[in-house]
Amino acid sequence: DVRPALAAARYDEERLRADGCLAFEGVTRPPQCRYGVSNGAVTVALVGDSHAAQWFPAVERIARVRGWQVRTFVKVACPFADMRVANLALKREYRECATWNLAVISELRALQPDLVLISMSRFAIHPVLDRDATVGAQGAALARFIDRLPGRVAVVVDTPEAGRDVPTCLARNTGDVRACAIPRSVAMSGDLGDRERIAARLSGAGLIDLTTRICPLYPAPVVVDGRIVFRDTRHLTATFARWLAPDLDAVIRRLVELT
Question: Counting beta carbons within 10 angstroms of the beta carbon of residue 256, is it exposed (0 to 12), middle (13 to 18) or buried (19 or more)?
Answer without folding.
Answer: middle
